[in-house]
Specification:
With about 450 residues, the chain is an alpha+beta fold. The chain has helices spanning about 1-30, 60, 120-135, 175-180, 195-205, 230-235, 285-290, 345-350, 365-370, and strands at about 75-85, 85-90, 100-105, 105-110, 135-140, 155-165, 170, 185, 225, 245-255, 260-265, 270-280, 295-305, 310-315, 330-335, 340-345, 350-355, 360-365, 375-385, 400-405, 410-415, 435-445, 445-450, 460. Helix 4 runs parallel beside helix 5.
């Protein structure tokens, strides 16, 4: 009996214990925070900001000229503008023999505008011209305690300072060119104003100015022709044989045989360069109007050697009336220009001249370098005359005048000349006379000559 009661008690106790355990577990679960995957949170960050725009700094104006820093300084005036980084200055004789210092600007290298034309080359050249033309005072400074030549040995490396009013501070043109994005730095970091130069060019790049704009140069033609100057063409002409080229010049004379002469002045050498332009039958009336004497034009054509005359010419000209701005077109730039008729003596005409030729130099006779340009020569004594006698030729009646000036002989070749009444002028009008002539430097039968197209360009003394 006792045993059964004990067993029933133990069973009840186990049930109670089990019940209490269940209650405890349920209670514990009810009071604990439910397990929930953590929500994705965003860490607050600073709000997006616009790029910080750095204020434009006038580095050229902030840089100050120091008078007593040990460099050489000289106040100058401009003799000749060459391009963006080269100017010839008038200086006292004790500074440079001859009174001219050919300056190459330190720290800058502007695009070319005197040989092959490069993008922004004309803009850089015009910038330098405008700044110095408006100056009331220009001062050049060396980098060291002497005037240091550049690699050519003919130019001197300088800093250029200028001001446009006496009450102003001097501005540094080298730095100003850099900060306007018109040059690449050329040894800028290693000179006395190196940090300013680098800051100026960094600013130009940041502001995307000119060379660093990524935009086309509005003064540059993006056609298939090689853009160059007449000097570059004339002094390297064989290397351009058969190539399409483009250059500017003034139409000076009509040859009467479907061609004209064009010339252009080169400030660096102080000479005119020219060439014969053969237009043939390929141009319309509007195209021919572009080639009117007195017009400054842009010539576009191919370089050819004319075997019959032994000279070079430019031909294959085109003019698309419906596309006047086509870079392949000849174009009129301005009008009202006169031929230069450069005065030259007989001795100078046959003398040897050396001029820059790309990276080197070219030596040739003055006449050879001036081929195709207008010249004037005085006091020539006509010692002999040869007249073309061929009724079937358009040159029938043209004359070749053998002239002397001292011990120098010069040949003057004429077209068929008519007087004011329309009568042909013959040899006896000039033989034994002293004359002044105006004409084109020409090459004929192995001889450099002066070619005269009208009687008014021969004056009898």
């Amino acid at each position: 009996m006792r045993v059964r009661k004990l067993i029933r008690f133990m069973d009840s106790f186990r049930k109670l214990l089990t019940l209490l355990t269940v209650i405890f577990l349920l209670t514990a679960c009810g009071t604990s925070a439910p397990t929930v995957p953590p929500a994705e949170t965003t860490v607050p960050t600073s709000a997006p900001t616009e790029p910080v725009l750095q204020e434009s700094v006038d580095h050229a104006g902030l840089l100050r000229l120091v008078r007593n820093n040990g460099t050489v300084k000289q106040e100058v005036t401009v003799k000749t503008f060459i391009d963006g980084d080269t100017v010839h200055f008038h200086v006292p004789e004790d500074v440079m023999p001859g009174g001219v210092l050919k300056a190459r600007f330190l720290a800058v290298n502007t695009p070319e505008s005197t040989g092959k034309i490069e993008e922004y080359g004309k803009a850089a050249s015009n910038f330098t011209r405008e700044k110095l033309s408006a100056a009331t005072s220009i001062l050049i400074e060396s980098e060291t305690d002497s005037w240091d030549p550049d690699s050519t040995g003919d130019r001197y490396l300088v800093w250029v300072w200028y001001k446009t009013a006496e009450t102003e501070e001097y501005r540094n043109l080298n730095v100003e060119i850099l900060q306007n994005g018109l040059a690449i730095a050329n040894g800028a970091a290693g000179n006395q104003y190196g940090s300013t130069c680098m800051a100026a060019i960094d600013q130009a790049k940041r502001e995307k100015l000119n060379l660093y704009s990524g935009k086309p140069d509005p003064d540059f033609y993006y056609g298939d022709a090689v853009e160059l100057t007449l000097r570059e063409l004339r002094t390297n002409i064989e290397s351009y044989s058969g190539m399409k080229v483009a250059f500017n010049g003034v139409i000076t004379s009509n040859s009467g045989t479907q061609g004209v002469y064009v010339e252009d002045f080169d400030p660096e050498t102080g000479m005119y360069y020219g060439i014969y332009i053969y237009y043939g039958h390929g141009l319309s009336g509007a195209g021919l109007d572009v080639l009117t004497v007195g017009n400054e034009v842009r010539i576009v054509g191919s370089v050819q050697f004319y075997e019959g005359g032994g000279t070079w010419q430019v031909s294959d000209l085109t003019y698309r009336m419906m596309q006047p701005k086509d870079p392949g077109n000849i174009q009129k730039i301005s009008e009202g220009h006169a031929p230069a008729y450069t005065p030259v003596s007989a001795r100078e005409f046959v003398s040897q001249v050396t001029v820059p030729n790309g990276e080197g130099e070219l030596t040739a006779s003055w006449a050879a370098l001036s081929l195709g340009t207008t010249v004037s020569m005085e006091n020539l004594e006509v010692v002999d005359v040869y007249t073309t006698d061929n009724p079937d030729s358009s040159s029938n009646g043209a004359m070749t005048l053998l002239c002397r000036s001292g011990d120098v002989t010069v040949t003057v070749r004429t077209a068929v000349l008519l007087d004011e009444n329309g009568t042909r002028i013959t040899a006896d009008a000039y033989l034994g006379k002293t004359i002044d002539v105006k004409g084109i430097v020409d090459f004929f039968d192995g001889d450099y000559q002066i070619k005269v197209f009208t009687a008014k360009n021969i004056t009898i003394k």
